[in-house]
Every structure is written in structure tokens, then in C-alpha cells.
Amino acid sequence: MEIPPSVDPVLTPPTRSNVLPVVNKKFRLLVGLILGLLVLVCVAALTAAIYILPIDDKFVGVVTKIVPYPIAVVNMQPISFKDFYKERQALENFYLANETAAEEQMSEAELDTSIIETMIDREVIRQLANRYAISLDQTKLDEVYTEAYTSSGFEEAFLSEVERLFGWEKEEFMSHVVKPVVLASQVEEAINADEDLQAAARTKIDAALARLKNNEDFATVAIEVSEDVSAADGGDLGYLPLTQLPPEWLDFLSNNELNTPTEVIDLGNVYSIASASDQVEGDDGTQFNVKTIIVYKVGMSEVIENFTAASKIWNFLKI
């Protein structure tokens, strides 16, 4: 049997048709890589310029109107240059409209610092509102806005003055002034009503009431417990007309015997106990000689301070 000779495998020589796709693919990848690096370099250079150049540099102003660069970040929530410039323009417009003398104006550095700190505080309050699941109360928004413009008599006159002073339309006034005020008030209400947060203050005032019910002298307890300036006088506020008494006190004092302490009464930002040692009739009507024990709740300023201290805040204005 004849064995066929071995045959070497024949290698197909590369042709133009099967080499070009590989070359083109590698070329496109290389070009893409180079372009990507160029873009990164450009973005890095642009970003560096934004944070190195002065805040009032025209280039910074133009770029940040288009690109939302943050001037500050609070717990990963950005505050944009664009919003900062809006606030700054409003204050500059206010100085100009009032013809404020240069020596009475804040320096540019002071102005910028004041604006950014205010914006950071607003963002902190917004985040606290989220923590308490608060949404803006439309009724309160309407009340605050109405109260603002009734001081001028007519809404049209008020809005005209707002535009003259700040360059704002109604919606801008609502956004920059009314909404932050209302949201802050709602956050304060939530803080005052937070039983866990106010537990220590409540325990303190409850202990004071227990001592009074055990027939301890009101003045003695007030001196030891009350946090009001009247504590040094045993909680004595003197004679007060009915119009100066909180409604919660007035209802109790008018319907109970003298020297009878109220229960613990929540007055919003304080817990209180009151008692009347005397009642007289005068030219101004009925007056009570009132004594009180006051224990302050944890206030909004303290909560904001603690929240801010625990937050991750980057203020790029300081760079």
C-alpha cells in the first residue's frame, strides 16, 4: 500500500480585505482613547480654573451659568454657583437701589461669606425638614406672603418695591424669602414637638411639678429649677394684665384658686408651670401676680449647630 507523502499545511497569506478591519478597529480605539484623555484634561483644566479664579471673574460666571458646578456641598447635596450669583446680584441690587454708601456696605469677601453661609444654613434646614418628613404648608405660605405685602397696602405696590430693591418677580421672592421662612418655622415646630429630643427637658419640668404637688414652696422650686431670668426672684413675674398672659395660663388661672400651680403647659419652645399669688382689679382690668417655672426645650439653633457639626460640608468659596 502506497503511503501518500505528508503535506505541509498551507497558510493563507494575509490579504488587504482581512487586515484592514483589524487595523481600523485598533485605530478607532486609539483615537477614542486619545480623545477621551483630551476631554478629561480639558474638563480638569476647566474645573481647576473655576475654583482657582476669583469668584467675580467673568469666565467663572459664564461657565457656571451653563455647567452646574457646586460652590458648596452639604452631605452630597450641591449648592450651585448659579444660585450663589442670584443671591449676590440681589444684594448688590439692594445696595444700588438704596444708594447705600460704600462705607456702610459689607466688603466683597464679607458679602460672599455671608451669602454662602446663609445658603448652607438653608440646605441644612431643608435636610432637617426631610428628616421630619415635612412638606411646605401652603396655608402658611399664603399667610406669610399676605402679611408681607399688606405692610405696603397693596400687593402690586409691594411687588414693585421688591423688583426695585432686589430685581425679583413674585416667584423669586417666594423662593428666596417666603419658602425658607415657612420651612424654618415648620422645622422648628417639629423640633419642639419631638418627644425624644425634648425628653430631658420634660423630665426636669415634671419633677418640678411633682415637688409642687408635694407642697414644696413655689419660689424655692423655681429658684432651683427654672431656667428663666425670673428664677432669681422665685419665678415672680409681677402683676400682669390678662392680655400679657399666654391663653393656656389665663384659662387655668381664671378658673382656679390662688396659689394653685398649673399642670405642665407646653408653650412651644418651653415647658412651663404657672401660679397666681394675687388678683387685683385696676384701670387696665384684671391683673394676676404670676409666678412661673420655665424649662427651655432643645432649640432649633442647637439642633442646626449639631446637625451641621455632624455633616460633611465642603465650602469651595474658601479655596
From TrEMBL:
<keyword id="KW-0413">Isomerase</keyword>
<dbReference type="InterPro" id="IPR046357">
    <property type="entry name" value="PPIase_dom_sf"/>
</dbReference>
<feature type="domain" description="PpiC">
    <location>
        <begin position="191"/>
        <end position="278"/>
    </location>
</feature>
<dbReference type="Pfam" id="PF13624">
    <property type="entry name" value="SurA_N_3"/>
</dbReference>
<dbReference type="GO" id="GO:0003755">
    <property type="term" value="F:peptidyl-prolyl cis-trans isomerase activity"/>
</dbReference>
<keyword id="KW-0697">Rotamase</keyword>
<dbReference type="InterPro" id="IPR000297">
    <property type="entry name" value="PPIase_PpiC"/>
</dbReference>
<keyword id="KW-1133">Transmembrane helix</keyword>
<protein>
    <submittedName>
        <fullName>Chaperone SurA</fullName>
    </submittedName>
</protein>
<dbReference type="InterPro" id="IPR050245">
    <property type="entry name" value="PrsA_foldase"/>
</dbReference>
<dbReference type="Pfam" id="PF13616">
    <property type="entry name" value="Rotamase_3"/>
</dbReference>
<keyword id="KW-0472">Membrane</keyword>
<dbReference type="InterPro" id="IPR027304">
    <property type="entry name" value="Trigger_fact/SurA_dom_sf"/>
</dbReference>
<feature type="transmembrane region" description="Helical">
    <location>
        <begin position="29"/>
        <end position="53"/>
    </location>
</feature>
<dbReference type="InterPro" id="IPR023058">
    <property type="entry name" value="PPIase_PpiC_CS"/>
</dbReference>
<keyword id="KW-0812">Transmembrane</keyword>
